[in-house]
Amino acid sequence: MNLVETKGILLFSKDHKEKDKLVKIFTESAGKQMFYVKGAHRKNNPLAPALLSYTEATYMGTIKTEGLSFLNNAKDIHPFRTIQSDIFIAGYATYLLNLADSAIDDRVYDPHLYQFLHEALQLMDQENDAEIITNIFEIQILHRFGITPNWTHCAICGKTDGRFDYSSKYSGILCEQHWGMDERRYHADSRAIHFIRLFSQISYEQIASIKLKPETKAAIRRVIDLLYDEYVGIHLKSKKFIDQMGQWQDVLKPKNQ
């Protein structure tokens, strides 16, 4: 049992009994931890602001090597207010939180994934393109699921420029001259492969220069969905939610947007 003070991002919370909560926090110093919060629903509980969805804070508590840990206090509470107030951005943010939760085991120290998630949420909160941020996150954490596609060059000849498609057979891209080597290649839009190759190595700071048409975004989504269905095999409710958002977002968004 260790007393700790660590930065953390709230992954999810759920009610426990009448007044208590179980909260899962991705901590910077001790990985993902499940905490028991006694009296979480008590009026004027000082922990309440740190237990809201889409919040980062410095959490203080007791971490156990087995079973539930206990949360005692929090400071430097930073709510991602734009995410909290926009159901569409929140949809993407929830999906990223769920992906991060799925990508590593509990109690695994992973400050790099923590920082990567923090940056993604921060950029979403600043109203950068949530779809592009999500795509970058999805592609760059594939290796945490044991998947390392070759995006840099044709798997047959090593060519690095031109039109490409993805081949499961070769675990990477094929240039147009070698598409015939795999009849079951993805038959993807070459623009989608171009941007996914870019997303595999880009830093978040560069996203401001990327403007994509809706049809290009849809083509990218198709390829990433194929990759996740084939290699990762997780089915998150939050992913289903963002898939359905396009059907009703025009109805819910204010008329001036």
Automatic annotation (TrEMBL):
Q: Please indicate which superkingdom the organism of origin belongs to.
A: Bacteria
| Signal peptide residue numbers | none
Q: Which GO terms describe its biological process?
A: DNA recombination; double-strand break repair
Q: Which InterPro entries does the entry mention?
A: ARFGAP/RecO (IPR037278), DNA_rep/recomb_RecO_N (IPR022572), NA-bd_OB-fold (IPR012340), RecO (IPR003717), RecO_C (IPR042242)
The UniProt keywords, alphabetically, are: DNA damage, DNA recombination, DNA repair
Pfam family membership, one = RecO_C
In its keyword annotation, does this UniProt entry include DNA repair? yes
List the protein's name.
DNA repair protein RecO
